[in-house]
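Per reviewer request, we include the raw input and output of the structure prediction for the construct analysed in the revised manuscript.
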Amino acid sequence: MWTCPLCHQQFVNTNQVHSCGDKVLGDFLGNKSERVLELFWHFIEQYQSIGPVTIHPTKSMIALAAITRIAYVTRLGRDFVDIVFPFQQRYDDNLCFHKIAQVPGTSQYNHHLRITDKADINAEVKRFMKMAYKEGSDKI
């Protein structure tokens, strides 16, 4: 593991490119409705029940990491939270992802989820959260 000497984030790759403290969590959560903040923190709590995760604000989104990044909060809307799970394969047989797209030039498939209610983090979503956590924990 490599630790950035400036922001103290840990990465698998030495000298990993990252935002290095350009943003803080408050930059994303400020001026958001109580409902959206409740959804965001519920998602974080659900992940913490799977295993320890760290929150890394980046220039344009909030990343969650086990050892490596396992999920991204890409948008905090008026009454929803958009989340992306990066997997190495497509998981088309699901009811939770509204979009699956391959990242150009890679073998990564981004699985897009929108939550509008705490109940949206159901058994199916938790199964994918656990899969992402396992992939992000097995990198070393």
